[in-house]
User: What shape does this take?
Amino acid sequence: AIPDHPIRLVLRRGVVLRGRLLGPDGRPAARTRLLMVPAYVGSGPSTLQVRTDDDGRFAFERAALDHFELVPEALRNWNARYEGPGAYLRIPHDTARWVEAARAGRDVTLQIEPYALVPLFVRTTDADGRPLGRREMALWLRSSERRGGGDDVLGTTRRTDAEGRLRVLLEAGRAYEVYVRLREEGAPLTAPWTQGGAASWTGTIERPQTVDAL
Assistant: This one.
């Protein structure tokens, strides 16, 4: 996801998180900004940032946070779903290995991975085929493909547009199940598959696409 999951590194105070950052092609990412973003920006420690040297090497001298993500280049890569469709970068998570290496004083190797978010427009209608415009929907995404530490399950609420459509951002080339349900006021947000509900749409997309909710 954006990357979407925070990385948990439990480091002793004074332990330095250091290593090398590689680009998508496997070569050292020289002079590249690397951000250490706390899980709760605005209510916790400030974002730390370093810049790699000519050989892609970096070091965070004050890595005393418990919950954070490592993000390449810019904050727009931190929570991409709120930025909109487009091309993004992430660092796939390998938390256990990083924690072990940091505690042992060993270097870690990170690699930047490119990905793209593409809009899927889901049309919703009533039993007579009329658009469910301006209605609140429960939206669930599920994927069996876990990539880059991103969410494999996402549940939220969205309001349709005047034509009864919901816009959902999906990672290009990744297989998803999309569930859309009309949400009654005050009803709990419950995953439909736990109640035997069928998906509204399943598949992968590479470019913007409009589908009808089943």
Remarks:
- The first strand starts at residue 7 and ends at 8.
- The chain is about 5% helix and 40% strand.
